[in-house]
Specification:
The complex is a heterodimer of chains A (168) and B (416).
Chain A (H helix, E strand, L loop, with lengths): L2 H5 L1 H10 L9 H12 L4 H11 L3 H10 L11 E6 L2 H4 L3 H12 L12 E6 L11 E5 L2 E5 L4 H16 L2
Parallel strand pairs in A: 1-2
Antiparallel strand pairs in A: 1-3, 3-4
Helix pairs in contact in A: 3-4, 4-5
Chain B lengths: L17 H6 L4 H9 L2 H11 L11 H6 L9 E6 L8 H8 L1 H14 L4 E6 L4 H16 L15 E6 L9 H8 L23 E5 H5 L1 H7 L1 H4 L10 E8 L5 E6 L4 H8 L9 E9 L4 E2 L2 H4 L5 H6 L8 E6 L4 H15 L5 H18 L5 H14 L6 H16 L11
Helix pairs in contact in B: 2-6, 2-10, 3-6, 5-6, 15-16, 15-18, 16-17, 16-18, 17-18
Classes of the chains: A alpha+beta (168), B alpha/beta (416).
Bound molecules: flavin mononucleotide, iron/sulfur cluster (SF4) and FE2/S2 (inorganic) cluster.
Flavin mononucleotide binds next to strand 4 and helix 18 of chain B.
Chain lengths: 168, 416
């Protein structure tokens, strides 16, 4: 049974309407985004399902997952804090910000907090270079930007997510 | 004359609201094109305007459109909203705050090449911008600016968004097409060029968001009006993304040919904390680094004048470097970026960026030797003109120019 096909039946129909009929492979990335958004990673199972839905091999879908940095093939934190440490942000103290935030969360860059809620990753330029230090949060609400950050403001976001988690 | 051609939202509040956009002359260019001009006339007007691509390569836009063969159908237009060059954040502002001008431009381009489907490829991080753009597209449909029988003519057009997922290389136009087709984003061999074999192997035009946002003005007011801005060879205006060690970073719209000094010290408010300017990277991480002396600061920012400085205007993402920054640190950052973003398809780039990053790390150490620096320079030079796409070439620009133009940052005894 293709769980993914059942769960996203409506979305799949809309996606297939977006691309020419003989090019359903184009729906691969949007489908991966849907699955990632709901599960915060993409399982082998989902990869099989998606391959079947668009009619390509599992290997092809897996290679797409491996190629793009916003797709993850194993579970980590529910929310990923992706901090830009690229050139312009580094000139505004992004490396120090990364270290300080990780210290406050008691993890190393790339690590996940004990409660499993937050993973901190270093990423390349996010097209907000005038507003560093900054990070984006990738989670179940898609991706949102948090600009002109301090450790305090970032920890406040962490706190809000922890509160939200308690109520779910 | 209005102060802005592109960043008009700075003058008109709520320009991202379709009613406000229409009230301020929105869609007049599209209406004129579709109801009063032939597609070929639109192409001629854009050719006459001298508009050049704002995505980095600076290729004449009208000329690019004229390459599409008229015996292969359908044609597609793809808007490049991948915006991933470090230091570049102009397209994002247009998408968020002046989205209809961009979409109108995309519609005009589509009409000009007789395309009935257009795609907007957004970098995956622009998730919210994509949701927002989808809403804008629906509003345009409702108001009759997209869909079937536009303005009562037989012309129909649909615009779709497609999200990437984090890969700088997908800004390269053929990698971008692969990505829309649901594949990994590796560049294609050329020829064939996308104008002949593009999306789904059909003739395709790919243009940057900012390039497209110029079109409503050009069609509504005519090429000659557009040419009143900028220089003879580089007409029009440009959005400069200003970042780094500068007091007022941000996007600034200026006519092409304004000087670096006007941008950095005028609008940008100069260098913070009493430091002096040292270097300029005007094409993001892909820059040949410019030594910021008086001659450079007084250079007009247009395609030709910047080339005369031994650099390229590129996407006009101006990163300011002050005298507290050492360029050995800086190129370690840029090389790290390119190593991460190399798609791995060709050996010179895959291996070259790997070795360069190993060497820039080594050069950063206290006990570096002159040989380390020399080897780094050699590896960079060996990559030159051997890479399959421009990413490989971009990756060596900063390295070679830093070592050549700022030798004092690479000596063995500079206090290390
Ligand atoms: C590695 C690489 C990354 C690029 N990234 C972008 C980008 O993010 N946005 C863009 O518009 N063009 C980018 N380009 C340039 C495109 O390949 C292409 O020239 C451009 O989209 C054409 O549009 P234009 O003529 O309107 O500038 C990139 C090129 C390379 C080689
Ligand atoms: S130059 Fe680099 S990015 Fe371009 S095709 Fe080769 S490996 Fe890929
Ligand atoms: S360098 Fe960090 S957002 Fe561009």
């Amino acid at each position: 049974m293709n769980q993914t096909a059942i769960k996203y039946a409506r979305e799949i129909e809309a996606l297939f309407a977006k691309y020419p009929e003989e090019h359903r492979q184009s729906a691969v990335m949007p489908l991966l985004h849907l699955v990632h958004q709901d599960n915060s990673f993409i399982s082998k199972h989902a990869i099989n399902d998606i391959a079947e839905i668009v009619g390509i091999s599992t290997t092809e879908v897996a290679s797409v997952v491996g190629f793009y940095t916003l797709y993850h093939d194993h579970p980590e934190g529910k929310y990923r804090f992706q901090i830009c440490t690229d050139l312009s942000c580094a000139l505004q103290g992004a490396d120090e910000f990364l270290r300080a935030l990780c210290a406050a969360l008691e993890i190393d860059p790339g690590g996940t907090t004990k409660d499993g809620l937050i993973t901190v990753e270093e990423v390349m330029c996010l097209a907000a270079c005038d507003k560093g230090p900054l990070f984006q949060v990738q989670g179940k609400d898609g991706i949102s930007y948090h600009e002109r950050q301090t450790v305090e403001s970032a920890m406040q976001t962490v706190q809000e997510l922890r509160e939200q988690e308690k109520h779910e | 004359m209005s102060k802005y051609l592109l960043l008009r939202h700075l003058e008109v509040p709520d320009l991202h609201n379709i009613k406000v956009y229409v009230k301020h002359g929105g869609f007049a260019g599209l209406k004129k094109a579709v109801t009063r001009l032939q597609p070929a006339q639109v192409i001629e007007e854009v050719k006459a305007s001298g508009l050049r691509g704002r995505g980095g390569a600076g290729f004449p836009t009208g000329l690019k459109w004229s390459f599409l063969p008229n015996n292969l159908w359908p044609h597609y237009v793809v808007a490049n909203a991948d915006e991933s060059e470090p230091g570049t954040f102009k397209d994002r502002e247009l998408l968020e705050r002046n989205p209809f001008q961009f979409l109108e431009g995309l519609a005009i381009a589509s009409f000009a090449v007789k395309a009935h489907d257009a795609y907007v490829y957004l970098r995956g991080e622009f998730w919210q911008q994509a949701v927002f753009l989808d809403n804008c597209i629906v509003e345009m449909q409702k108001a009759g600016y997209l869909g079937d029988k536009l303005f009562g003519t037989p012309y129909s057009l649909r615009i779709h968004t497609h999200l990437g997922a984090g890969a700088y290389i997908c800004g390269e136009e053929t990698a971008l097409l692969e990505s829309i087709e649901g594949k990994i984003g590796q560049p294609r061999l050329r020829p064939p060029f996308p104008a002949v074999e593009g999306l789904y192997s059909k003739p395709t035009v790919i243009n940057n968001v900012e390039t497209l946002a110029n079109l409503p003005f050009i069609i509504e007011n005519g090429a000659s009006k557009f040419c009143e801005y900028g220089t003879v060879k580089s007409p029009g205006v440009k959005i400069f993304s200003l970042s780094g060690r500068v007091n007022k970073p941000g996007n600034y719209e200026l006519p092409l040919g304004a000087t670096f000094r006007e941008l950095i010290f005028g609008l940008g408010g100069g260098i913070p904390n009493g430091h002096k300017i040292k270097a300029i990277m005007q094409a993001g991480a892909s820059s040949s680094i410019i030594l910021a002396d008086d001659k450079a600061l007084d250079t007009p920012m247009d395609y030709e004048s910047v080339a005369a400085l031994g650099a390229q205007l590129g996407s006009a993402s101006v990163i300011v470097i002050d005298d507290s920054v050492s360029l050995d640190w800086l190129i370690n950052k840029t090389v790290h970026f390119f190593k991460h973003e190399s798609c791995g398809k060709c050996t010179p780039c895959r291996e070259g960026t790997y070795w360069m990053s190993h060497l820039t790390e080594k050069v950063l150490q206290k006990d570096r030797s002159a040989e380390d620096v020399q080897l780094l320079n050699t590896v960079a030079r060996q990559m030159q003109n051997k890479c399959l796409c421009a990413l490989g070439e971009f990756s060596i620009m900063a390295v070679m120019t830093a070592i050549e133009r700022f030798p004092e940052d690479f000596t063995v005894t500079n206090g290390r």
